[in-house]
Amino acid sequence: xxxxxxxxxxxxxxxxxxxxxxxxxxxxxxxxxxxxxxxxxxxxxxxxxxxxxxxxxxxxxxxxxxxxxxxxxxxxxxxxxxxxxxxxxxxxxxxxxxxxxxxxxxxxxxxxxxxxxxxxxxxxxxxxxxxxxxxxxxxxxxxxxxxxxxxxxxxxxxxxxxxxxxxxxxxxxxxxxxxxxxxxxxxxxxxxxxxxxxxxxxxxxxxxxxxxxxxxxxxxxxxxxxxxxxxxxxxxxxxxxxxxxxxxxxxx
Length: 252
Known about the structure:
Elements lengths: L3 E7 L6 H7 L5 E7 L5 H7 L3 E5 L4 H11 L4 E4 L4 E3 L1 H13 L4 E10 L2 E2 L12 E7 L3 E3 L8 E3 L2 E4 L4 E6 L2 H21 L6 H18 L7 H27 L2
Parallel strand pairs: 1-2, 1-4, 2-3, 6-11, 6-12
Antiparallel strand pairs: 4-8, 5-12, 6-7, 6-8, 9-10
Helix pairs in contact: 5-7, 6-7
């Protein structure tokens, strides 16, 4: 029987972590990376019998790679604190890893805002329809970057049917608070890597991303949530660019 490790990388996630770790009890091993946690996340992880990795990582990629290195399973399921595997997904995962060839398995996602399932309009740095979050050990490596670092990963070898539940946002204020935080991180990466785009490219992305979210990805079917998601997608490149300009002016 193939061994399965469930990996969660968290920062002060005590409100979400119990349900997350409960949902992956079907795994043979739970690994929790605690990045500068000052709340009760460690106690929760220990209560679930998790292997603990503690430290401080300014970049997302290295902290996730530290978690991957701590996993001993043949297959690894990466799960964030605001995600939950359903019993149906757990059973499908256990069956899939017994017969799947080495590589990545695509897991569909059911994205929610305030507990309401929102099917359309996702993308551009918020929710995704599916992720390669289940993969054979040694087939994934995260690159550098504060936000959305590049990933080296094997090809998809199978696609599952049961979805991962993702409580993306508590409400719209939570959505836009996260937008500002993500834009700041993206701006820091731009300045550090000297990768500030041309103003005309940023302007085009504002309109193209709104169109993609609201029209191409059918966010218009989701009422005001669809408008909110499209606005998020449009604001992300603009605010990131403006914040990068401010950081440059301050010499940071």
